[in-house]
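[step 3/7] fold_predict: job queued, chain A
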Amino acid sequence: MTTQSALLLLTTETPLHAGAGQSVAGIDLPIQRESHTHWPCVYGSGVKGALRAHAHHHPDFGPSDLLDLFGPDHAAAAGERDSSHAGALLVGDALLLALPVRSLQTCFKWVT
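[step 4/7] structure written:
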């Protein structure tokens, strides 16, 4: 069994809204947050889905590679119980590295 790990730095080119999927106290579009710090984050399931979509369109990954890394699609897994299995790729939550805060000199500064 191979166990490798990697640290990925994700940046967005456009504004990102990772929705929590439920409304809380009158806020109809809440964002995903860490439970202990309440800082914004992107859950690992969303990151894994984005990686799967990117790998699906990449020429280096074949159908068997996608099946090994990410597991079968939900539609395929629902019809065939014997072929349902988890993928080999384990993805954690995407956490903030730098947080934009207001500044007196410029519009904002990046703080870690």
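[step 5/7] annotate
Strands lie at 41-42, 94-95, 99-102, 108-111.
The longest helix spans residues 44-56.
exit 0
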